[in-house]
């Protein structure tokens, strides 16, 4: 069907040329007969008829060509302005023009079908955008809103929004955050209205339509998730604190009661004195342990804000391997490090990142120590647009149940561990807007990854 259309169009234009040639020939013949008829004026009607016929042929030829041009111009204007309501009536100019007009109508029908399909797709997408649970707001550089869905209206407490500047009264910093948030960045907004507090997570993306730049911001209500996480964190913390405090208070209470009972006796025998001395010593030792626990917890709340600077990763590796080299030698663990590319740099606080690496290397050394072929690797590379530092050891690994808990404060798998090292590392990485994660294959290797 489609292959027949070009052939029909070529035939239509061929007939158009043929009709023009025939009309010109007839006109030429009429003009040739006109001077011959003037030689014999016995019949004056003949030259008059020939003259009228020639004039009619000239008028018909002009109308023939002009009408075609008008139809073509009307067709092109309809395409230009997307006015597909035009139709072309066949008949009146011959079969060739009937074919041409049918071709025009077919093209317009195709355009109409395409526009109808796009309108249906647009309605479908608009329906999806309006019914998703994520708030969406799109606006240009002047803040003029071109799109806001029902979820965004609900989160921002507005019925309509013409310009983002109209949100000034909704909360401090809301408009500034929406208009300045960069692509692939996240911001948290706290909105309070009528005593209700809402936490919104905002993400932005930039796109262009023609010469105009637009910003699309998505809004997520995370208040309930934050409350759940906060409650879970408090429960974990209370369990840890209760466990540690009870472990220290229970023997202290028992031994102090024993010592008090012995001292209440009128005479204290030598053996009882030794028992009292042992009890007091144990109470002192457990009290010191409890004080150290409280100091460790206090350290977690006193991490200073990082002082960012551009730092070569190779320099970081050289400093920490030099600091940890002696410990690795004593433990019989090989320490290797590599940076790819060698010029890799990271924007971070060098002192705090060194502290994180020292904690991870110390843990890796303890895990791999005592094994044949014990080895720890410190590597850095680029993963897309993020710097990734890995600390890998071939120790016994971490069981899956413990992987989800190793970053909880005071949780430890070591006999003498404090349980704050990895928690401190995670807090430092969060202050650097980065992440720390762990994966392990028991008996094969364990990898701690820092992503900046």
Radius of gyration computed on alpha carbons: 43 Å
N to C succession of SSEs: HHHEEHHEEEHHEHEEHEEHHEE
* Average pLDDT taken over every residue: 76
Number of strands: 12
Q: What's the overall geometry?
A: elongated
Q: In percent, how helical is the residue content? A: 40-55%
- Structural class per helix/strand content? alpha+beta
Strand order of the largest sheet: 2-1-5-4-3
Write structural notes for this entry.
The chain is α+β, with helices and mostly antiparallel strands and 452 residues long. It has 11 helices and 12 strands. The strands form 3 sheets. Strands 2-1-5-4-3 form a 5-stranded antiparallel β-sheet. Helix 2 (45-80) packs parallel to helix 3 and helix 8 (313-331) runs parallel beside helix 9 (350-368). It is elongated. It starts with a helix and ends with a strand. The model is unreliable at 1-14 (pLDDT under 50).
Give the helix/strand layout.
Layout: H1 4-38, H2 45-80, H3 95-131, E1 135-140, E2 145-148, H4 150-156, H5 174-180, E3 186-193, E4 196-209, E5 212-221, H6 223-263, H7 270-300, E6 309-312, H8 313-331, E7 334-339, E8 345-348, H9 350-368, E9 375-383, E10 386-393, H10 400-403, H11 421-431, E11 435-441, E12 445-451
